[in-house]
Amino acid sequence: MCYTYERTMSAIKKIIGFFDKLEDKIRSVLSHSPIIYALIGAIGIILMWKGVEETAGLLPILFGPGSFILGALILLLTGLLVSFFIGDSIIISGFKKEKKLVEKAESEVRSEQEMIEDLEKKVERLDSDVNKLAARR
């Protein structure tokens, strides 16, 4: 039995590895055509949700309140309810007592953007310095 389990797990790992590599190749190709990428993604999402809806229609308990309760329970247990419907950035900005992006003045947004660009330059310089030190060894 253990031998069969190991063979099954090995086969599953190979299948997952194949699809992982295939996904990487497809994303690489599609990333050069963002509109086509978006259309294919939209079609995939719509077809998936269509399948979920049709499957749920086969189970009488998943009509009306049953569907709502099960969906809410799944989202609560996985931690996706709040992050999906509100978003992490809104929650974090509330904790920091920051203004919403639409309430910020253009100068505030530009100032933050300049700070981010400055930090990116510093990180690039640090990375360059670390690479030079590593090359000396």
Automatic annotation (TrEMBL):
- Tell me which stretches of the chain form a coiled coil: 95-136
Organism domain of life: Bacteria
List where the protein spans the membrane. Answer: 29-49, 69-91
Q: Kindly state which keywords UniProt assigns to this record, in alphabetical order.
A: Coiled coil, Membrane, Transmembrane, Transmembrane helix
Could you tell me what this protein is called? Answer: Uncharacterized protein
Source lineage: Bacteria, Candidatus Adleribacteriota
